[in-house]
Amino acid sequence: MSARPRTIQIYLPNGDPRGIRVAELTTSIVRVVEVPRSMLPEFKQMPEAEQVALYFLFGNGEAQDSMVYIGQSGCVGKRLDTHNSNKDFWNKALVVVSMTNNLTQTHALYLEWSSIKAAMEVGRYAVENGKAGTKPHTPAPLQADCEDIQDTARMLLATLGFPVFEPIAAQPSNGTPVELFFCTGGGIDGVGEYTAEGFVVLKGSKGRVATVASYGVANEAMRAKLISSGVMQEEGGFLVFTKDHAFSSPSSASMALLGRTSNGWLDWKSADGKTLDDVKRKTT
Description:
With 284 residues, the chain is of the alpha+beta class.
């Protein structure tokens, strides 16, 4: 889907912004319903609960916020009831339906397969399904419909705070290359991007294994979590990023690489040696 202005409508059926939310593009028949697990009984009273649907289960606890389960059902309310009994990790269900109720099981099976595949390729969330399986046979006209549905669902999910199909690293726009920043010294070789979500350290960046005594308990814990989750792993005497990873700030990104306290606005530099502070914060 091309980057152009869009209008998205979000409806609160219970008047509670923390409750059920219904999102749709004003020019599309695709609707996404966000259902807190505690409000599943209320969702089951909605007509969408009886439709054919693609759905996503997300956890939002500290140890679970990067997990998703993707499924499809001919009666999504009943399927969510089952998951309420047999899956512990999730706190939110995101349900994708058609406002005209014209999704078929063929649509749903293809959407499930393509969504699992796309989510695994992006790698932002750990996909609990494990694998996408075999591509289902889908007539070309239905496959084209599914690709349009998935494009719209992608945008609506991200708008609601679940960017399961959005790459972590920035993407080139209109032929303009992505601006890279570097954190180097003493064998350290970090490459990153300043994005709307924070600072992203790119896959292959190399950091120091050892940390200094003044590194701090919180920073040690951050690093330990990156290592235990497999984001960083020791290779050839360095800690190497195994995938792109977004940090909340440039400083937390540089500290993860350097193993010491750091001002990321000064330690990340462009290819021509300008600091991130010079490039992004200072004006002439």
